[in-house]
Every structure is written in structure tokens, then in C-alpha cells.
């Protein structure tokens, strides 16, 4: 297959001084943006064996959508040292007041850590209040979009807890044009649940490491993709999980998580 670069960023690595090249991996030529423009955006801090960060989107008040590789090593309900926290409702991470801890999650059962096939997961949290700063995305069961739409992805890129004045604390967005499968072939073999977007020119704007799991949206709130990976030779060409392709899976698993949580609640009563 191909050598891929998962976009999670290990905070542990950033903490070491002198690895400044890592900082260049932030959204390049992206623009700082307000949460109202991407109110579905969630910053995920994942503490499972190591600490890393990802993006996610709000599917409904209790369910977040993210990439499988962001949470695959976490079983939140079995091990209390594994904690996933979602930050919601502000473009500036230092000012976020709404944080939610994950209660449960499901990673696609055929997720492949090597090929990144089926790179999709859902995370259940305590209820998130909705407002103009925290809104749901809409998923579509058919691809009722242009074949190669222009879409946008927003993420926080690199975030380093230990140096609060450095790194991106502000949500950044970048425009991505979805490419035809023929163009995506430069990356290697993509499975039917993947597509690519961005640019084959390395110097063009791109999503950052740590933007993994973030939503690619068409017309503000129609989510079409989840940031999955890129290959080193095309740093501005991003591979996305096709959300429409996994629509049924997302729907079914969300229902299951929801039912499971209400059963647990009623058992306790
Ligand atoms: C995404 O998946 C849907 C459903 O399988 C498909 O119709 C659509 O063409 C795919 N989109 C891309 C850009 O590959």
C-alpha cells in the first residue's frame, strides 16, 4: 500500500523543545475563523496511553463524529485512565467554557490501522447545549452535491498545553476542492469510502496534523468528509473519509449508543 501520515499530533512530541519544524505543520495560509462560521467544530483532547488531539463534529447533542484513528486505542468505559474530552463553542481554546467527557464510543469494526480503511468513529458525551456557537452538522444519505465540490475544513492544528502562548489556539479554516478519483490516484489506492481534496501543489494551503477527525463541510453545515490522512509526497492533498458512504453505519451505531445509554440509565433507577 502507501506510506501514510496520520494527522494526529502527539502532544508529547511537541513538548520537546527544539522540534520547531513540527510547528510548520499547522494550517498553512489558512485563515483564523470564528466559531459561528464552523459551529459544529469540536476539539478533542485524547488521553489514552499517550496524549494527542483531534477534531470532531457535533452530530447531535450527545454524539460526535470523528476519525477512527483518533480514538481507536481508547476504550473509555473500561479504563479510567483513558479520557477523551471535547471542547465546544469557542474559536479560542483558552476561552472554551463547555467541555464534555466521552462516555462511550464506537470505532468502525473494519477500521484498519495500516490502510486507514473505514476511518470513522462516533463518540458519545454528556449533553452539549446547542446555540449559534455549537450547532449540528447535517449528513446526507445520497451524494446530492456536485461531483467535485468546493468545501471547507476547520481545525485547531497544533495545540500545546505546555506553552500557552505558542501554537494555534484559534480555529483555522481552509478551502478544499474535492478531486476526481483520477487525480487522487497520485496518492495510491483509495478505497470506495475515501476521497481526496486539496491540491497536488505542496505549497498550497492545507489542513494540519491534529486536524484529524475534523469535518469537511459543504455550504456551512453539510458534512461530506472527515480528515483522515495524507501522504508525505503530497502534503496539501488530504484524504477524507466519505461521510455519505458511511451514512448508514453512522446512523445505526448512533442509535445503538443512544439505546445502550438509556438502558444503563433506566437500570440504575
Ligand atoms: C461518497 O460516497 C457516496 C456514496 O457511496 C458516493 O455516491 C459519492 O460519489 C462519494 N463521493 C466521492 C467524492 O467519492
TrEMBL record:
Keyword Cytoplasm among record annotations: no
Keyword Heme: no
UniProt keyword terms in alphabetical order: Disulfide bond, Signal
Domain called Peptidase S1: residue spans: 27-255
InterPro entries reported in the protein's UniProt record: Peptidase_S1_PA, Peptidase_S1_PA_chymotrypsin, Peptidase_S1A, Ser/Thr_Proteases_Immune/Dev, Trypsin_dom, TRYPSIN_HIS
Range of residues in the leader sequence: 1-21
Family: Belongs to the peptidase S1 family. CLIP subfamily.
Protein name: Peptidase S1 domain-containing protein
Annotated organism of origin: Loxostege sticticalis
Organism lineage: Eukaryota, Metazoa, Ecdysozoa, Arthropoda, Hexapoda
